[in-house]
Amino acid sequence: MDIRRTQIAYRCPACAEATVGFLGGLTAAADMLRLKCSCGESALDITKRRGGGIHLSVPCVYCGENHGTDISEELVGRDALTALPCPFSGMDIAFIGSDEQIASAVTDSAAALGRIMTALEAEEISDIQPREGDADDTAIDPAVFDTINFIVRDLESEGQVKCPCGATRPALRYTDSGIQVYCESCGASRDITALTPTAAEEYLTLSEIILA
Ligand SMILES: [Zn+2]
Ligand SMILES: [Zn+2]
Ligand SMILES: [Zn+2]
Fold it and tell me: I need a labelling partner for 211 at 20 to 30 A (CA). Which of 5, 30, 49, 137 fits?
């Protein structure tokens, strides 16, 4: 794929609209690009990496925060769509690809977001994001998330994560008491109570997760 025609898209955490731009603005002269949402509340930053590839700082529509990630030159240059997941929810939050690939990815991501909003009975986009101000009170050690995520993905690979709707790839999010494993299709969930890494490790013995 010709990088000058390669597009990149993300969805704004403030207004939920998708913004699409070209990677072609990255040239020898400009090693940083900022793609701003038209609402002015968020921006995706793209920086050229010295060793090749790019670094992205992506506003996350599911977390309301930015996630940083490195993308290799091969991924940027390949012909297939590259989707970048939120490390917490597992949902795709940014896309790199051709104009057609981006257009369909943006449509699909709107549908995925819509399903989550419906499942959670959310009226505003901020309803699905961790509440501001809660961060200090409920700051859960990221190691808790990593451990639970490891357990869930491990069980998932063994087909031991079960949802009534038949979906097999749940998403995760922080709650006041730990992590919630939930289904993006139907909203079924299972709460995992774990405020410390030690508590999270207790769940290593889980042999299945059933969402309800
Ligand atoms: Zn916006
Ligand atoms: Zn996120
Ligand atoms: Zn489900």
Answer: 137
64 and 169 in a common domain: no
pLDDT at 1: 54
Residues, Cβ < 5 Å to ion ligand 3 = 163, 165, 167, 183, 185-186, 188
Ligand that lies nearest to the alpha carbon of residue 90, given by its number in the listed order: 2
Residue at which a domain ends, from 119, 143, 158 = 119
Confidence of residue 8 (pLDDT cuts 50, 70, 90): very high
- If asked whether residues 69 and 107 sit together in one domain, one would say yes
- Ligand 1 centre distance from Cα of residue 33 (Å): 17
* Domain carrying residue 34: 3-119
How far apart, in whole angstroms, are the C-alpha atoms of residue 92 and residue 113?
Answer: 10
Number of domains, the chain: 2
**What separation in Å is there between the alpha carbon of 189 and the centre of ligand 3?**
8
Ligand nearest to the CA of 115: 3
100 and 12 in a common domain? yes
* Total residue count of the chain as it appears in this document: 212
Does residue 186 sit within a domain? yes
pLDDT digits (tens, 9 = 90+) for 134-179: 444 456 777 888 899 999 999 999 999 999 999 888 998 888 888 9
- In which region does residue 133 sit, left (phi positive, over 0), alpha (psi from -120 to 50) or beta (all else)? left
